[in-house]
Amino acid sequence: MKRVVITGIGAVTPIGNTFCDSWEAAKRGICGIMPATRFDTGDLLWRSAGELKGFDADAYLSPREQRRLDPFAVYAVAAAAMAVQDAGLAAHSDYLASGAVVIGSSRGGISTLQSAFARSAKGDAGKRLTPYLMPATTISTASSYVAQKLGVKGHCLGISNACASGTSAIGEAYRMVRGGYAGPVIVGGSEAPVCRTCFEGYGIAGALSKNGGPSASRPFDRARDGFVLSEGACVMVLEEMDEALQRGVSISAEVAGYAGSCDAFHQTRPAAEGQARAMSAAIEDAGLAPGDIDYVSAHATSTPLGDRVEAEAIRRVFGRRAAALPVSAVKSMTGHMLAASGALEAAFAAMSIREGLIPPTMNLKKQDEDCRLNVITERKEAEIKAAVSGSYGFGGVNAVLVLRRPPGISK
């Protein structure tokens, strides 16, 4: 089996228009949640969102391309271009061309579909829909357009696995490289769900927060009442370790284990047993034991049931150690970027390993007694040799990654 490492990361998020800016903001506890501006929320109960701020796609796509693509694909292209640059692949075009692209998305081009539906509802039948509507909105558009822009001619895959889509994409890419896939894999998650359809859909399901302002997302807090819908993308480059070392590129962390599971229980309600099973299997896949894990980057969406179930799952896996094991929740700052959150949280976990620090969980004033965990609320220095990052989605789909510090990489 080949060993798999992260050699490049790119991102556009509510807290930064590059991965480095996003990571620096997370370490400082900066929140990107604010009133939604993409559409009029005046008649809705849910008004907060995590939107990109000042993002300019002109460096990555022409104005015509931007018009023809849904924002989720635009964000993916930008993040992928940054990841490839970070990995030093621009000077290795043949190697890059032999690679693969795997991008996860839960909602795909729903913002563009929303606009088309709205136009039809107004009776604008004389306005012909764009011929790019279908290719622009399918889940695989992000991966295929990233491949087109970067000249990647190997395997190309779009994954839709609810909120676990980004984590599942990284896990499947990890399996590809571990199994001997020769080229680099450009992998991550991208979403642009800040539109009325998603707000009403998630809202009526009871998943969204009615709180306003930067403190709307409150993982593990007694006053949490739902997640904040957000947009963005995070993409990384996975390579076989020997190839990365031969190229002399910087390594952020090793992807050491991955597992998925299904609760087989309920369409929207999560189950601790299924999440715990995925965590345990991922740790075993990494050749580790629960006692080897130093940090958990939690899914922690800030829903009343979801956070409680995840806390129970963590306690099942780690037993008495759960009382001391550091846990943090990035969504307290970014909101829930769906597929992009799983990818970003894995990337942040990699940086926690590399830099030896844990970003804070914001807005935790009174911790829910049913969420008894060691939740980190202030930036904390810590030696982290191995970390768990998990994502859990509608339908009971669970995906968990284990990242660790590769040999020769010190804090």
Quick overview of this protein structure:
This protein is of the alpha/beta class and 411 residues long. Strand 14 (386-393) and strand 15 form a beta hairpin. It has 14 helices and 15 strands.
Could you state the order of secondary-structure elements as H and E?
A: EHEEHHHEHHHEHEHEHEHEHEHHEEEEE
Q: Termini separation (Å)? A: 26 Å
Helix content: 25-40%
| Overall body shape | globular
| Strand adjacency order, main sheet | 5-4-6-7-1-8-15-14-9-10-12
Low-pLDDT sequence parts: none
Number of distinct helices: 14
- Mean pLDDT across residues: 96
What topology emerges from the helices and strands here?
Elements: E1 4-12, H1 19-27, E2 33-35, E3 48-50, H2 63-68, H3 71-86, H4 93-97, E4 100-104, H5 110-121, H6 133-137, H7 141-150, E5 156-159, H8 165-178, E6 185-191, H9 196-204, E7 232-240, H10 241-247, E8 253-262, H11 272-285, E9 295-297, H12 304-318, E10 326-328, H13 331-334, H14 339-355, E11 357-358, E12 374-375, E13 380-381, E14 386-393, E15 397-404
Parallel strand pairs: 4-5, 4-6, 9-10, 9-14, 10-12
Antiparallel strand pairs: 1-7, 1-8, 2-3, 6-7, 8-15, 11-13, 14-15
Can you describe this structure?
With 411 residues, the chain is of the alpha/beta class. The chain has 14 helices and 15 strands. It has helices at 19-27, 63-68, 71-86, 93-97, 110-121, 133-137, 141-150, 165-178, 196-204, 241-247, 272-285, 304-318, 331-334, 339-355, and strands at 4-12, 33-35, 48-50, 100-104, 156-159, 185-191, 232-240, 253-262, 295-297, 326-328, 357-358, 374-375, 380-381, 386-393, 397-404. An eleven-stranded mixed β-sheet has the order 5-4-6-7-1-8-15-14-9-10-12, sandwiched between helices. Strands 2-3 form a two-stranded antiparallel sheet. Strands 11-13 form a two-stranded antiparallel ribbon. Strand 14 and strand 15 (397-404) form a beta hairpin. Helix 8 crosses helix 14. The radius of gyration is 20 Å and the shape is globular. It starts with a strand and ends in a 7-residue tail after the last strand.
